[in-house]
Every structure is written in structure tokens, then in C-alpha cells.
């Protein structure tokens, strides 16, 4: 599913390199912005990979940083060119979380905590349709259909025959009891969850009600990790109107420790599967 050139990852790597060059020069983002007569926020967005970057931007920044090695300039220019290509998700139009999809497409592993629903990569079509329509009651049918198709295509990362995404999911027990669609949809969903949890690269744990207060009490989040050492881990927190991406090592470490607590507080893999199987049988009645 992943293309050879992932524009999101290219932007991210390019931004990291531009930040490194700025810091080597001993300049602040504000100083660079003043030299180029642009806003400081533009420089920040270019460096964090959230904004498309042109070859002209790269040329201008290399000029400010006095980069003399033409090979470095050419390499950065090529990265800028690659970063403006389109990933498979762009064929579906304006996707609010396209940055996340780009990161997920290139990630080596993903750890997810979901307090309310079954995580998107493990949803059936019927469940995805019900959750998307219920969560976006004012959206058009066409827009909701598009979001369903994008969600199902993302699942190619965990069903790939080679190098599938390593997925670890902690589901709050509430997500198993919340009837999305109807009981038949839930039975099918939980049976699918059981089947997927048996794959060697997918781990599913259930955080039971009787744990009480826990490390994930503040809500859903995901931790993405990448094979390339140049790509730092990212914590992703989904929002209603905007999403949050945390990349600072201390932030990532804090959420990683929180996730370890969640895993420890959850039922083990066998107990979790038994809990899901029991609920699936109840939905079948």
C-alpha cells in the first residue's frame, strides 16, 4: 500500500534537516523569518513537516544558512520535490488527518489506547460505517463513504504479506459494550477482533472496568515508531477540529511510560481474548 516516496515522511525528514542547519548556524526561527521577510510560524511549520515546502524555500534557507556544499543543497532540493508528490490518500480529496495517514503508512510499529471505540485499523466495514456516520451526523453521505473507504484502505498496513505494521492495542472495556450499529454488527466486529488478535504482529488487551482510575483516563492516543533512526517517534492525539502531534523526546517518553502502565493494568492476551469471546456470544443471542 505504501508508495516508494511518502510525502509526509519526506517533509518531516526535510524539516528536521533544515532545523539542524539553522541550529548549526546559531539562528532562531524568528531571525530566519526576518531575513526572508516571512512569518516565524512559516519557519516553524516548515521545520515540523506540517507544511508543504517548495524548492525555492529550500534554496532561500540554504542561502541564509550559508550552505556551501552543493551536494547537500541538491539533496535537500530533491527531498522538497519528493515531498510535494501525493500519497494514495490524496486521491480521496481533503482528508483532515492526512498527516497522520502519511505517518501511519511509513511506521514500523503503532501502540494505541482507545477508551470508547474499537480502533480504526481493526474495524469491520459495518462497524466503520456506523461509527463514522454516528460521529459525523452533519456530513454528506458521500463524505462519510469516502472516510469509510480511507479507513478500510489503511488496514492494508496490518494485512500486508511483507513487513506488516506491528500493532499493539489497549481497548477500554467500554469499547466492547458500546453498541455501535446493532448487536449483529457488534458480534461480527468482536469476532473479527478475535481473529485479528491471533496474528503474530497484532496484540490486543482489554482494560477492564474494575481497574478504576488508570493511566489513560485523559483519553485516546497513539504512539508511532519508525524503522529509520532519523525519524523520531510521534505521539498522536486526535481532536475534533485539529490534531496534536508530539515529537519532543520528553513528551514521547511520558506517553510511553503511561502506555506501559496501561498494558500492566490490562488483562493479559489470553484473558482479553476470553473476555471478547464472551461478549461476542452475548451479542449473538
UniProtKB/TrEMBL annotation:
CDD domains, per database record: HTH_XRE
UniProt domain HTH cro/C1-type: residue ranges: 18-72
PROSITE patterns: HTH_CROC1
Lineage top rank: taxon: Bacteria
A Pfam entry, by short name: DUF5753
Annotated Gene3D superfamilies: lambda repressor-like DNA-binding domains
Protein name: Helix-turn-helix transcriptional regulator
